[in-house]
Amino acid sequence: MSNALLSMATSVRQMVIQQVQSIPEELFDVQPDPFNNTIRWNVGHIAFVNEYFLSLGLSIDSRLPDHYAQLFKPGTQPDDWSDIPPTKEELLQNLTRQLSSYSDIDPSVFDKQMDPPIDLGPLKLETFGEVFNFATVHESMHFSSISSLLKVLQYQKV
After folding, report:
1. Which of 22, 33, 67, 157 is most buried, taking the most CB atoms under 10 A from its CB?
2. How many Å apart are CA 123 and CA 98, to the nearest integer?
3. Half-sphere exposure of 47 (CA within 13 A, CB side)
4. Is this prediction's pTM over 0.90?
C-alpha cells in the first residue's frame, strides 16, 4: 500500500507540474467570477500545504520562504496580499523539489501513528499514511481548481 501512496502522489504531482508549465504566467493572477482565488494562489497553496502535511510525519526543514504562509495558508486570498507573490518559475521549483523528495521517503513511515490524530472536519487521520494520502487528495482538488480556472480564462479569452 505504501508504494501505491508514493506512486499516486508522484503521478499527481507530475500532472500538476506539467499543467503549470503549460500555463502562460499572464493568466496566473486573473481571478474570474465566481472564483475566490487564482491559478498562482492554487499552485502556491499546493506547495505550502504539501510541505505542512509532510512535516507532520517526516523530519523536514521547510525550504519555502516564510511569507508563503501569509500568501497561501488556508483562508488566504490574493485580494489580501501585501507581499509580492512568487513567480511561476519559483513555484515550479518548489513543486519539483517536493516531488524529488518523495524518493527519500521510507515507506515504513506511513505506518507511523499520529499522536494525536489529525482532525480535518469529519476526517480523523490516524497514521502518516492517511495524512500523506489526504495531501494527495487535497492536491488533486486544487489541480482541478487550476483546470477549471484555466478553462474559464480560455473561454473568456483573457
Report:
1. 67
2. 25
3. 29
4. yes
Provide the mean pLDDT of the chain: 95
Phi, psi of 123 (to 5 degrees): -90, 140
Cell of 96: 519539483
- pLDDT, tens digit, for every residue of 28-85? 999 999 899 999 999 999 999 999 999 999 988 788 999 999 999 999 999 999 999 9
Find out whether 78 and 29 touch, Cβ atoms under 8 Å: yes
Question: Which residues, other chains included, contact 140 with Cβ-Cβ below 8 Å and sequence gap of 6+?
Answer: 12
- Distance CA(66)–CA(9), nearest Å, equals 25
> Collapsing DSSP states into helix, strand and coil, what is residue 112?
coil
From first CA to last CA, the distance across the chain in angstroms is 43
